[in-house]
Amino acid sequence: MPLLVKCSGQTVVSTSIAQGTPVRPTSILVVGATGTLGRQVVRRALDEGYDVRCLVRPRPAPADFLRDWGATVVNGDLSKPETIPATLVGIHTIIDCATGRPEEPIRTVDWEGKVALIQCAKAMSIQKYVFYSIHNCDKYPEVPLMEIKHCTEKFLQDSGLNYVIIRLCGFMQGLIGQYAVPILEEKSVWGTDAPTRIAYMDTQDVARLTFIAMRNEKVAKKLFTFAGPRAWTTQEVITLCERLAGQDANVTTVPVSVLKFTRQLTRFFQWTNDVADRLAFSENLPCHTTSNLLGSKMCAADTTEVLSSNTVFSAPMAETYSLLGVDQKDIATLEKYLQDYFTNILKKLKDIKAQSKQTDIYF
Q1: Sign of CA dihedral 336, 296, 302, 169
Q2: Which of 55, 103, 116, 162 lies 20 to 30 Å from 185, alpha-carbon distance?
Q3: CB 299 within 8 Å of CB 259
Protein backbone atom coordinates (compact mmCIF):
# COMPACT_ATOMS: atom_id res chain seq x y z
CA MET A 1 0.00 0.00 0.00
CA PRO A 2 1.27 3.52 -0.73
CA LEU A 3 2.20 5.69 2.21
CA LEU A 4 -0.01 8.77 2.65
CA VAL A 5 1.34 11.73 4.54
CA LYS A 6 -0.66 14.92 5.08
CA CYS A 7 0.75 18.33 5.93
CA SER A 8 -1.50 21.38 5.79
CA GLY A 9 -3.92 19.66 3.48
CA GLN A 10 -1.28 18.25 1.13
CA THR A 11 -1.09 14.53 0.39
CA VAL A 12 2.15 12.95 -0.73
CA VAL A 13 2.60 9.38 -1.93
CA SER A 14 5.79 7.44 -1.30
CA THR A 15 6.30 4.08 -2.95
CA SER A 16 8.49 1.23 -1.78
CA ILE A 17 11.18 0.06 -4.21
CA ALA A 18 13.47 -2.94 -3.87
CA GLN A 19 16.98 -2.41 -2.47
CA GLY A 20 19.84 -2.07 -4.91
CA THR A 21 23.56 -2.80 -4.76
CA PRO A 22 25.23 -1.30 -1.66
CA VAL A 23 27.78 1.45 -2.28
CA ARG A 24 30.80 2.51 -0.25
CA PRO A 25 29.77 3.64 3.26
CA THR A 26 32.18 6.57 2.97
CA SER A 27 30.25 8.12 0.08
CA ILE A 28 28.00 10.89 1.40
CA LEU A 29 25.92 13.70 -0.05
CA VAL A 30 25.54 16.89 1.99
CA VAL A 31 22.48 18.96 1.11
CA GLY A 32 22.68 22.58 2.29
CA ALA A 33 26.48 22.43 2.37
CA THR A 34 27.02 26.20 2.22
CA GLY A 35 25.01 26.95 5.37
CA THR A 36 26.15 27.54 8.95
CA LEU A 37 25.85 23.87 9.87
CA GLY A 38 26.35 22.38 6.40
CA ARG A 39 29.87 23.70 5.96
CA GLN A 40 30.90 22.27 9.35
CA VAL A 41 29.43 18.89 8.35
CA VAL A 42 31.44 18.99 5.10
CA ARG A 43 34.63 20.00 6.92
CA ARG A 44 34.22 17.25 9.51
CA ALA A 45 33.42 14.61 6.90
CA LEU A 46 36.51 15.44 4.86
CA ASP A 47 38.70 15.42 7.98
CA GLU A 48 37.39 11.95 8.82
CA GLY A 49 38.12 10.57 5.35
CA TYR A 50 34.67 10.56 3.77
CA ASP A 51 34.13 11.10 0.06
CA VAL A 52 31.94 14.19 0.14
CA ARG A 53 29.58 15.34 -2.56
CA CYS A 54 27.72 18.62 -2.03
CA LEU A 55 24.38 19.42 -3.63
CA VAL A 56 24.42 23.16 -4.33
CA ARG A 57 21.94 25.26 -6.23
CA PRO A 58 23.32 27.08 -9.29
CA ARG A 59 24.39 30.50 -8.05
CA PRO A 60 26.23 33.60 -9.28
CA ALA A 61 28.93 33.09 -6.64
CA PRO A 62 30.05 29.43 -6.88
CA ALA A 63 30.79 27.51 -3.68
CA ASP A 64 34.50 27.32 -4.53
CA PHE A 65 35.52 26.95 -0.90
CA LEU A 66 33.89 23.48 -0.85
CA ARG A 67 36.01 22.41 -3.83
CA ASP A 68 39.10 23.93 -2.24
CA TRP A 69 38.48 21.77 0.82
CA GLY A 70 38.34 18.63 -1.35
CA ALA A 71 34.59 18.09 -1.80
CA THR A 72 32.83 17.44 -5.10
CA VAL A 73 30.16 20.02 -5.92
CA VAL A 74 27.14 19.10 -8.03
CA ASN A 75 24.33 21.42 -9.10
CA GLY A 76 20.83 20.53 -7.98
CA ASP A 77 17.74 22.25 -6.63
CA LEU A 78 15.22 20.80 -4.17
CA SER A 79 12.57 23.05 -5.70
CA LYS A 80 13.19 21.28 -9.03
CA PRO A 81 12.76 17.53 -8.29
CA GLU A 82 13.98 16.50 -11.73
CA THR A 83 17.51 17.67 -10.77
CA ILE A 84 17.76 15.41 -7.71
CA PRO A 85 18.20 11.78 -8.97
CA ALA A 86 21.50 12.37 -10.79
CA THR A 87 23.07 13.77 -7.63
CA LEU A 88 22.34 10.56 -5.69
CA VAL A 89 24.13 8.09 -7.97
CA GLY A 90 26.77 6.20 -5.97
CA ILE A 91 25.78 7.79 -2.66
CA HIS A 92 25.50 5.77 0.56
CA THR A 93 24.33 8.44 3.04
CA ILE A 94 22.46 11.73 2.69
CA ILE A 95 23.00 14.42 5.33
CA ASP A 96 20.21 16.94 4.98
CA CYS A 97 21.13 20.39 6.35
CA ALA A 98 19.10 22.35 3.82
CA THR A 99 16.52 25.05 4.46
CA GLY A 100 14.84 27.55 2.17
CA ARG A 101 16.05 31.02 1.32
CA PRO A 102 14.40 34.00 3.05
CA GLU A 103 12.59 35.09 -0.10
CA GLU A 104 11.06 31.64 -0.75
CA PRO A 105 7.74 30.33 0.57
CA ILE A 106 8.50 28.01 3.48
CA ARG A 107 6.94 24.96 1.83
CA THR A 108 8.93 25.15 -1.42
CA VAL A 109 12.16 23.68 -0.04
CA ASP A 110 11.38 22.68 3.54
CA TRP A 111 8.38 20.52 2.64
CA GLU A 112 7.94 19.85 -1.07
CA GLY A 113 11.68 19.74 -1.72
CA LYS A 114 12.37 17.44 1.23
CA VAL A 115 9.55 15.09 0.23
CA ALA A 116 11.01 14.87 -3.28
CA LEU A 117 14.49 14.20 -1.86
CA ILE A 118 13.25 11.46 0.48
CA GLN A 119 11.26 9.82 -2.32
CA CYS A 120 14.30 9.86 -4.60
CA ALA A 121 16.45 8.46 -1.79
CA LYS A 122 13.99 5.60 -1.34
CA ALA A 123 13.77 4.94 -5.07
CA MET A 124 17.56 4.87 -5.43
CA SER A 125 18.14 2.72 -2.33
CA ILE A 126 20.12 5.23 -0.29
CA GLN A 127 21.43 3.36 2.75
CA LYS A 128 21.04 6.11 5.38
CA TYR A 129 19.39 9.50 5.69
CA VAL A 130 20.32 12.07 8.35
CA PHE A 131 17.77 14.84 8.84
CA TYR A 132 18.19 17.96 11.00
CA SER A 133 14.99 19.18 12.60
CA ILE A 134 13.98 21.62 15.34
CA HIS A 135 13.53 20.80 19.02
CA ASN A 136 9.87 20.94 20.13
CA CYS A 137 8.64 21.10 16.52
CA ASP A 138 5.87 18.63 17.41
CA LYS A 139 4.49 21.01 20.04
CA TYR A 140 3.63 23.88 17.70
CA PRO A 141 1.44 22.63 14.80
CA GLU A 142 0.11 26.19 14.34
CA VAL A 143 3.58 27.42 13.36
CA PRO A 144 4.24 26.61 9.66
CA LEU A 145 7.97 25.86 9.87
CA MET A 146 7.59 23.76 13.02
CA GLU A 147 4.67 21.85 11.48
CA ILE A 148 6.65 21.21 8.31
CA LYS A 149 9.67 19.93 10.23
CA HIS A 150 7.46 17.55 12.22
CA CYS A 151 5.65 16.38 9.08
CA THR A 152 9.00 15.75 7.39
CA GLU A 153 10.14 13.72 10.40
CA LYS A 154 7.03 11.56 10.12
CA PHE A 155 7.39 11.22 6.35
CA LEU A 156 10.99 10.05 6.76
CA GLN A 157 10.09 7.66 9.59
CA ASP A 158 7.38 6.06 7.44
CA SER A 159 9.47 5.95 4.27
CA GLY A 160 11.26 2.68 5.06
CA LEU A 161 14.68 4.35 4.87
CA ASN A 162 17.31 3.85 7.55
CA TYR A 163 17.38 7.28 9.18
CA VAL A 164 18.74 9.37 12.03
CA ILE A 165 16.73 12.47 13.01
CA ILE A 166 18.55 15.14 14.99
CA ARG A 167 16.57 17.97 16.54
CA LEU A 168 18.58 21.09 17.26
CA CYS A 169 18.04 23.97 19.68
CA GLY A 170 20.27 26.78 18.43
CA PHE A 171 23.75 27.55 17.06
CA MET A 172 26.44 29.50 18.90
CA GLN A 173 27.77 30.80 15.59
CA GLY A 174 24.68 32.95 15.03
CA LEU A 175 25.34 34.89 18.23
CA ILE A 176 28.50 36.46 16.84
CA GLY A 177 26.71 38.56 14.24
CA GLN A 178 23.70 39.14 16.46
CA TYR A 179 25.48 40.32 19.60
CA ALA A 180 29.28 40.13 19.65
CA VAL A 181 30.02 42.21 16.56
CA PRO A 182 27.42 44.96 17.23
CA ILE A 183 28.68 45.36 20.80
CA LEU A 184 32.28 45.73 19.64
CA GLU A 185 31.19 48.20 16.94
CA GLU A 186 29.01 50.09 19.45
CA LYS A 187 25.91 49.50 17.36
CA SER A 188 22.39 48.65 18.54
CA VAL A 189 21.72 45.15 19.79
CA TRP A 190 18.17 43.91 19.34
CA GLY A 191 16.52 41.68 21.89
CA THR A 192 13.17 40.82 23.44
CA ASP A 193 11.76 40.68 26.94
CA ALA A 194 10.93 36.98 26.48
CA PRO A 195 12.02 34.50 29.18
CA THR A 196 12.57 31.76 26.59
CA ARG A 197 15.83 29.84 27.09
CA ILE A 198 17.95 28.15 24.42
CA ALA A 199 20.75 25.63 24.91
CA TYR A 200 23.08 26.79 22.12
CA MET A 201 25.54 24.34 20.61
CA ASP A 202 28.69 24.85 18.56
CA THR A 203 28.06 23.60 15.01
CA GLN A 204 31.43 21.86 15.13
CA ASP A 205 30.15 19.74 18.02
CA VAL A 206 26.90 19.08 16.14
CA ALA A 207 28.90 17.82 13.15
CA ARG A 208 31.19 15.68 15.31
CA LEU A 209 28.30 14.03 17.16
CA THR A 210 26.47 13.49 13.88
CA PHE A 211 29.24 11.30 12.48
CA ILE A 212 29.57 9.39 15.72
CA ALA A 213 25.84 8.67 15.55
CA MET A 214 26.04 7.70 11.87
CA ARG A 215 28.61 5.00 12.62
CA ASN A 216 26.72 3.63 15.63
CA GLU A 217 24.27 0.93 14.56
CA LYS A 218 22.49 1.22 17.91
CA VAL A 219 21.05 4.55 16.88
CA ALA A 220 19.55 3.42 13.58
CA LYS A 221 16.04 4.83 13.12
CA LYS A 222 16.37 7.00 16.22
CA LEU A 223 15.37 10.59 16.98
CA PHE A 224 17.70 12.70 19.13
CA THR A 225 17.85 16.23 20.43
CA PHE A 226 21.30 17.80 20.54
CA ALA A 227 21.48 20.57 23.13
CA GLY A 228 24.29 22.62 24.62
CA PRO A 229 25.36 22.37 28.28
CA ARG A 230 23.18 25.28 29.44
CA ALA A 231 20.06 27.13 28.29
CA TRP A 232 20.35 30.93 28.03
CA THR A 233 17.92 33.83 27.82
CA THR A 234 18.56 36.69 25.41
CA GLN A 235 19.51 39.03 28.25
CA GLU A 236 21.97 36.52 29.72
CA VAL A 237 23.72 36.21 26.35
CA ILE A 238 23.96 40.00 26.03
CA THR A 239 25.34 40.31 29.58
CA LEU A 240 27.97 37.64 28.86
CA CYS A 241 29.04 39.46 25.67
CA GLU A 242 29.26 42.75 27.54
CA ARG A 243 31.52 41.24 30.17
CA LEU A 244 33.82 39.58 27.64
CA ALA A 245 33.95 42.67 25.41
CA GLY A 246 34.61 44.94 28.37
CA GLN A 247 31.94 47.41 27.29
CA ASP A 248 28.19 47.94 27.59
CA ALA A 249 25.76 47.10 24.83
CA ASN A 250 23.33 49.57 23.30
CA VAL A 251 20.28 47.34 23.73
CA THR A 252 16.96 47.98 21.99
CA THR A 253 14.32 45.71 23.51
CA VAL A 254 11.27 44.76 21.44
CA PRO A 255 8.41 43.51 23.64
CA VAL A 256 6.86 40.23 22.56
CA SER A 257 3.47 41.95 22.70
CA VAL A 258 4.57 44.23 19.83
CA LEU A 259 5.57 41.27 17.70
CA LYS A 260 2.25 39.59 18.39
CA PHE A 261 0.31 42.75 17.46
CA THR A 262 2.30 43.06 14.22
CA ARG A 263 1.42 39.50 13.33
CA GLN A 264 -2.29 40.08 13.94
CA LEU A 265 -2.21 43.27 11.87
CA THR A 266 -0.63 41.56 8.87
CA ARG A 267 -3.43 38.97 8.84
CA PHE A 268 -5.76 41.64 7.43
CA PHE A 269 -3.85 41.77 4.16
CA GLN A 270 -3.64 38.79 1.80
CA TRP A 271 -0.20 39.75 0.48
CA THR A 272 1.28 39.57 3.96
CA ASN A 273 0.13 36.02 4.78
CA ASP A 274 3.66 34.66 4.55
CA VAL A 275 4.97 37.48 6.76
CA ALA A 276 2.33 36.61 9.33
CA ASP A 277 3.34 32.95 9.19
CA ARG A 278 6.94 33.93 9.85
CA LEU A 279 5.83 36.11 12.77
CA ALA A 280 4.01 33.06 14.15
CA PHE A 281 7.36 31.34 14.37
CA SER A 282 8.95 34.39 15.98
CA GLU A 283 6.54 34.16 18.89
CA ASN A 284 8.16 30.86 19.71
CA LEU A 285 11.91 31.49 19.41
CA PRO A 286 14.11 34.46 20.28
CA CYS A 287 14.68 36.83 17.36
CA HIS A 288 18.30 35.75 16.89
CA THR A 289 17.47 32.04 16.73
CA THR A 290 16.14 31.89 13.19
CA SER A 291 19.50 33.05 11.86
CA ASN A 292 21.43 30.25 13.53
CA LEU A 293 18.96 27.42 13.91
CA LEU A 294 19.66 24.85 11.17
CA GLY A 295 21.47 27.59 9.33
CA SER A 296 18.15 29.21 8.55
CA LYS A 297 18.35 32.72 7.11
CA MET A 298 14.75 33.60 7.75
CA CYS A 299 13.87 37.07 9.00
CA ALA A 300 14.02 37.85 12.71
CA ALA A 301 10.26 38.22 12.79
CA ASP A 302 10.05 34.50 12.05
CA THR A 303 10.15 33.77 15.75
CA THR A 304 6.72 35.43 17.63
CA GLU A 305 4.41 32.25 18.86
CA VAL A 306 7.14 30.34 20.74
CA LEU A 307 8.58 33.43 22.44
CA SER A 308 5.37 34.05 24.34
CA SER A 309 5.14 30.42 25.44
CA ASN A 310 8.06 30.57 27.92
CA THR A 311 9.53 27.45 26.34
CA VAL A 312 12.96 26.07 27.20
CA PHE A 313 14.76 24.87 24.08
CA SER A 314 16.96 22.31 25.74
CA ALA A 315 17.00 18.59 26.53
CA PRO A 316 18.86 16.21 28.88
CA MET A 317 21.98 14.91 27.12
CA ALA A 318 23.38 12.36 29.60
CA GLU A 319 21.75 9.36 27.91
CA THR A 320 22.80 10.58 24.46
CA TYR A 321 26.39 11.13 25.57
CA SER A 322 26.45 7.63 27.07
CA LEU A 323 25.03 6.01 23.93
CA LEU A 324 27.46 7.83 21.66
CA GLY A 325 30.44 7.37 23.98
CA VAL A 326 31.00 11.12 24.30
CA ASP A 327 32.35 12.97 27.34
CA GLN A 328 30.30 16.06 28.17
CA LYS A 329 33.55 17.87 29.01
CA ASP A 330 34.40 17.77 25.29
CA ILE A 331 31.29 19.78 24.38
CA ALA A 332 31.93 23.51 24.03
CA THR A 333 30.17 25.81 26.46
CA LEU A 334 28.85 29.17 25.32
CA GLU A 335 31.15 30.91 27.79
CA LYS A 336 34.23 29.23 26.30
CA TYR A 337 33.07 29.74 22.71
CA LEU A 338 32.47 33.47 23.15
CA GLN A 339 35.57 33.91 25.31
CA ASP A 340 37.72 32.45 22.52
CA TYR A 341 36.06 34.76 20.00
CA PHE A 342 36.49 37.93 22.03
CA THR A 343 40.06 37.04 23.03
CA ASN A 344 41.05 36.55 19.39
CA ILE A 345 39.19 39.55 17.99
CA LEU A 346 40.34 41.94 20.71
CA LYS A 347 43.95 40.82 20.19
CA LYS A 348 43.62 41.49 16.45
CA LEU A 349 42.12 44.92 17.11
CA LYS A 350 44.96 45.71 19.51
CA ASP A 351 47.55 44.60 16.92
CA ILE A 352 45.90 46.72 14.21
CA LYS A 353 45.89 49.73 16.53
CA ALA A 354 49.56 49.19 17.35
CA GLN A 355 50.50 48.91 13.67
CA SER A 356 48.51 52.05 12.92
CA LYS A 357 50.46 54.00 15.54
CA GLN A 358 53.76 52.76 14.10
CA THR A 359 52.88 54.19 10.68
CA ASP A 360 51.59 57.56 11.91
CA ILE A 361 53.32 60.52 10.20
CA TYR A 362 53.64 63.78 12.07
CA PHE A 363 54.33 67.13 10.44
Answers
A1: negative
A2: 103
A3: no
Give the C-alpha separation, 267 to 265, whole Å: 5
- 212 pLDDT exceeds 70? yes
**Confidence at residue 7, expressed as pLDDT on a 0 to 100 scale:** 60
pLDDT above 70 covers what percent of the chain?
A: 75
3-state secondary structure the chain: CCEEEEECCEEEEECCCCCCCCCCCCEEEEECCCCCCHHHHHHHHHHCCCEEEEEECCCCCCCHHHHHHCCEEEECCCCCHHHCHHHHCCCCEEEECCCCCCCCCHHHHHHHHHHHHHHHHHHCCCCEEEEEEECCHHHCCCCHHHHHHHHHHHHHHCCCCCEEEEEECCECCHHHHHHHHHHHCCCEEEEECCCCEECCECHHHHHHHHHHHHCCHHHCCEEEEECCCCCECHHHHHHHHHHHHCCCCEEEEECHHHHHHHHHHHCCCHHHHHHHHHHHHHEECCCCHHHCCCCCCCCHHHCHHHHCCCCEECCCCHHHHHHHCCCHHHCCCHHHHHHHHHHHHHHHHHHHHHHHHHCCCCC
- Tell which residue, 207, 249, 245, has the closest CA to residue 226: 207
Q: Is the pLDDT of residue 189 over 50?
A: yes
Is pTM beyond 0.90? Reply is: no
The pLDDT of residue 358: 45
**Strands 3-7 and 10-14: what pairing?**
antiparallel
| Number of C-beta neighbours around residue 354 at 10 A | 9
CA distance 98 to 32: 4
What is the C-alpha to C-alpha distance for residues 90 and 277, in angstroms, rounded to an integer? 39
The 10s digit of each residue's pLDDT in 36-84 is: 999 999 999 999 999 999 999 887 777 899 999 999 999 999 999 999 9
Q: How far apart are CA 97 and CA 324, in angstroms?
A: 21
What is the reported pLDDT for 81? 94
- For residue 18, what pLDDT is reported? 46
